[in-house]
Design a protein that fits this description.
Elements lengths: L15 H33 L8 H19 L13 H32 L8 H24 L1 H4 L5 H26 L3 H6 L3 H8 L2 H22 L1
Helix pairs in contact: 1-2, 1-9, 2-3, 2-6, 3-4, 4-6, 6-9
Keywords: Electron transport, Heme, Iron, Membrane, Metal-binding, Transmembrane, Transmembrane helix, Transport
Cofactor: heme b
Subcellular location: Membrane
Amino acid sequence: MPSDVEYSPVGDGLGMRDFWLYVWLRRAAVIAAHIVGLGLTLIISVLSRPGTSLFSWHPLCMSVAYCLCMTEGILLFSAEGTIFCFKSRKNKVRFHWLCQALVLIAAAVGLGFILASKTVSELPHLVSWHSLLGFSTFTASLLQAACGICVIFHKQLRLSSSPARLKLYHATCGLVVYLLATVTVILAMFSDWFQATVKGIGWWVFAMLPLSPAMVVMNQITNAYLLRNKMSS
């Protein structure tokens, strides 16, 4: 009988004391990822001073989309636990869909504001690495959502791929999108706006922070599918 209990194979072969230390370190990393995601969103929201200009809404919307909603939507399935009290996988999937829908909505609004800001200011579009990678991330997010639809409605769409393979594609694409978003956020910190707002050691701290949830998300997804391959072999 299949179980809803999620388990990570990493840590097998350790002694009991080392195993529990490893478990607590992993849980601490997941908690840190939650804190960093929320903290980055709040701090960027304050720094951008939404409402002072068209541009000011862009950092707010994008941080809500990718630093908060996408992070929480993925960590929801963490084997180390989540801040949300969902025990059934069905409810987790529903909340995951809600988070990813909010990602697309917030990202689309943020994209609209930066396009409007550059148009009003008569500035060229897609001329920096941040803008190019950001647009690529948004496009990849749309493709990822389409992949998620295929996972949910594979029977109705009569797809030839098995549900397990579609879930593997979905998880892999999700990891790629999240890593793209992480690099985009880091590149945003090289912008004139951010460098004029945050300086010194504070800038270096901000530049490193997005790597924390990215490492946790990458570890979570790769471990989950390593276990699946191990069990199926």
